[in-house]
Amino acid sequence: MRKMLLLSIWLFSVTRCEEPKIQVSGQEGGQVHISCPYGSGYENYPKCFKKGIYAYRKTIITSTDTLCKQTQDRKYDLCDDTEKRILHVTIYNLNLRDAGTYWCEIDAYTFDPKTEVELKVQKASVKTTVETITVNQQQSTRTTGHMNCLKRIMFYKHIYL
After folding, report:
1. pTM of structure
2. How far apart are CA 150 and CA 129, in angstroms?
3. Confidence band for 29, pLDDT divided at 50, 70 and 90
4. What does the DSSP 8-state code read for residue 28?
5. Which of 5, 118, 138, 149 gets the most CB atoms within 10 Å of its CB?
6. What is the residue extent of each domain of the chain?
7. Residue 18: how many CA atoms within 13 Å on its side-chain side?
8. Kind of pairing, strands 21-27 and 100-106?
9. Residue ranges of the Immunoglobulin domain (predicted)?
10. Dihedral pair phi/psi, residue 128, rounded to 5°
11. pLDDT tens digits for 64-105?
12. What is the spatial distance between Cα 59 and Cα 76, in angstroms, rounded to a whole number?
């Protein structure tokens, strides 16, 4: 019994290692497109997109009766191209919390074929805005008054020297 359990665990881990993995990256505020190919015979099965580590993944969007679907908040699009056998997913308005492990899955009622997707999100670069301010300089009456004062001082110096 123990050998059977170990063999099952080993086979499970070998199977998991052979699953394809897609790596994508995007910038904060942008969007990313993910294409998950799948094998022949799965065209009519429901497809879904999940997030999280393998055992604790949560469904984000599922397409059961239509080929394309969008989440209510318009963050995720899922489209199934059954002719090319590719599940297309788009994530909009990326933020740093979107980074992580995702899964494209086919609900085949037995073994669910899945593709692991690793998403990295880079912080958006800071936009620097340089603003030029032009100040109109006006000559004030103080300058004229100051000049008159200097003339008087020079006059008094001239008289007393």
Report:
1. 0.66
2. 45
3. very high
4. T
5. 118
6. 20-122
7. 7
8. unpaired
9. 21-122
10. -105, 125
11. 777 899 999 999 999 999 999 999 999 999 999 999 999 999
12. 12
